Amino acid sequence: MNFFKRKTTWFCVAALIMIFADWIYVNAYKTSSDIETQMSQLVNDKDKARI
């Protein structure tokens, strides 16, 4: 019984870590894509100003 309890606890911890890592990954991906979009917009603005 104790072994079973410990196993489920580890499983829950692992699941939480997986969800947390997934959330961080998604947030980082969104942030980097936003930065890329802003950079491309800045470059486009510079090109427009040059013309």
Give a written overview of the molecule.
The protein is 96% helix and 0% strand. It is mainly α. The termini are far apart.
Describe this structure in a few short sentences:
With 51 residues, this protein is an all-alpha fold. The chain contains 1 helix and no strands.
How does the overall form come out from the CA principal axes? rod-shaped
Average of per-residue pLDDT values? 85
How many strands? 0
What is the alpha-carbon Rg in Å?
A: 22 Å
Percentage of helical residues? over 70%
Order of helices and strands: H
Number of helices: 1
Measured by DSSP, the beta-strand proportion falls in: under 5%
* Low-confidence spans: none
How many angstroms separate the termini? 75 Å
Characterize the biggest β-sheet: none
What is the structural class? mainly alpha
Descriptive key words:
single chain; 51 residues; mainly alpha; 1 helix; rod-shaped
SSE layout and pairing:
Elements: H1 2-50
